[in-house]
Design brief:
Elements: H1 2-7, H2 9-27, H3 29-36, E1 41-45, E2 48-51, H4 52-69, H5 81-103, H6 110-119, H7 121-124, H8 135-143, H9 149-170, H10 177-187, E3 190-199, H11 201-204, H12 211-220, E4 226-227, E5 230-239, H13 240-245, H14 251-265, E6 270-279, H15 286-305, H16 310-317, E7 329-333, H17 340-346, E8 358-360, E9 363-373, H18 380-413, H19 419-425, E10 430-436, H20 450-456, H21 459-464, E11 471-472, E12 477-487, E13 490-491, H22 494-527, E14 538-540, H23 550-558, E15 566-571, E16 576-586, H24 593-622, E17 626-627
Antiparallel strand pairs: 1-2, 1-17, 3-14, 3-16, 4-13, 5-10, 5-12, 6-7, 6-9, 8-9, 11-12, 15-16
Length: 645
Amino acid sequence: MFDLVRKHTKILMFLMFLLIIPAFVLVGVDGYNQMSDKGEAVARVGSQDITQAEWDAAHRNEVDRIRASMPTLDPKLLDSPDARYATLERLMRERVLQQAAEKEHLITTDARLARELQQNPTIASLRRPDGTMDMERYRQLAANQGLTPEGFEARVRSDLSTRQVEMGVTGTGFAAPPLADVSLNAFLEKREVQIARFPTADFAAKVTPTEADLETFYKENQSQFQAPEAAAIEYVVLDMESVKKSISVSEQDVKTYYDQNAARLSGTEERQASHILITAPKDAPAVDREKAKARAAELLAAVRKAPDAFGDVAKKNSQDPGSATSGGDLGFFARGAMVKPFEDAAFAMKKGDISDVVESDFGFHVIKLVDIKAPKQRTFEELRAGIESDLKTQQAKSKYAEAAETFTNTVYEQSESLKGVADKLKLEVKTVPNLVRSPAAGATGPLANPKFLTAIFGTDAVEKKRNTEAIDIGANQLLSGRITKYTPARTLPFAEVRAAVRERVVAVRGAELAKKEGNDKLTAWKAAPASAAMAPAVVVSRDQSQELPPKVLAAVLRADLTTAPAFVGVDLGDQGFTIARVNKVVPRGNVDEAMAKQGRAQYAQWWTNAESAAYYDLLKERLKAQIKAARPVSAKVDAPAPAAN
């Protein structure tokens, strides 16, 4: 057989060529890629799908980015269904803008890309003193985002192209001052109002339902007294911490790392400085910047003649509202905390020195170096625990992929138990006695993950008690579980929920009585306004609600004051009924020019945001963009939880 293959190699290669090439012609390379990509489509933009795998990867990157910028943030906050859905919406927005840019042939030239990279402060910080780029640090910057330098530049180029799509709207938004003033005056209008409340609790004591009433309500509202399907489960989680537990670091490795990094680990030098700032934004006219520079030079001459008066001069003349009142004091700061020109000057000075005039994007500074705090070398024992943890983390990152593959294979191959994967990877098998399909509002963590809940209550897991597949729940976490006992949804017996039924009946009838009393008073007071017994008048507006419920405030602001006073009644459901007497409109009052200018700018921004949102909706419609994944719904608590007698 093998002799035949060896003798007729060329003929066999020709036959394979005839078989394979037509397949590529008919299906195409993309077709093969699509056939191999089994990820479920969670959204679609034009003819392109966004798969579950792409969504998961995008959310992992988002979580890593946020945690890098805010290390102290609780990672559980990033694992909620709402946070994941927000990532999908951002991902779809990127795809919509990318396709719109392609259709409009909006491209970014090499020159525009180079200019953007030069202006990027992060990349600018990678330049050496001679102006050349530190390519090793540049590659590391790209690698931290999972990219090569070429990939990083391609992403920046794409971002610039998509930015052009919206620039025609966001870059041209404006609102005429008269229109802005009319809208803001209406939006911030104040009204004098008096309130009369009819809370349900005041009427509940009058409700005395009979046993027949309770049984009738129970029969008519059995959906309110159901126990949801539930399951007793066991589960295992593979994450970076569990991988770290299986790693041991030698004493010699810890000592070597300390010797090589002691200076860095001991902290960085900090400097305390005071400054006098004369503001002049970088986009201000050249004449204004020259005036600001000249004023800074005058103040520099003054403080050099009397260095001890620096604080007094700063208090009287500095235009930095954050530091002027404290004599320009900025406290201690390390490298990277200030804009680069300011930082370069401060770290080149000696204690007590006063700088020349320093120009930055904010304006012109005169700097006095107050103190220098040099880092103190920390001992090996002080840093030992932290170093050991860091080394374990580094090794865990490299071993996680291998452990993840083992985890995935084992939960599938040994689908009748989680003991095998737990023993193999030294994981803890955890149990939950009563897991429900819909977690409580605000719940986070593995057991609130919608992918896991869908899998654990799936047919295979419920009927055959098999392990779920390894589910990626983000932030380097894999989860698998299995059901040990399943209880289907059922209506709870009347005897078991009698107390809850009575509570609901009392609440419903109490609300009905409150509403009837409120409507009766509303009719009487409209006929004879002077007879209205109400609380003292208060002035309310959208930004000063005086603790009025939103529904009541909205009714007050909508009330027609053609004939004042105006009475409005608001049904608050289970909370009762409220009557508001709107006496008059209170003028907004005089607004100083600075406040008016700020308000107009804010209104113009709102208007621009609305136009931008409308334009994005138009692009989605043109590209037939659609999110297929269901939007998470927060659980509502419409009734007290059933309780056993």
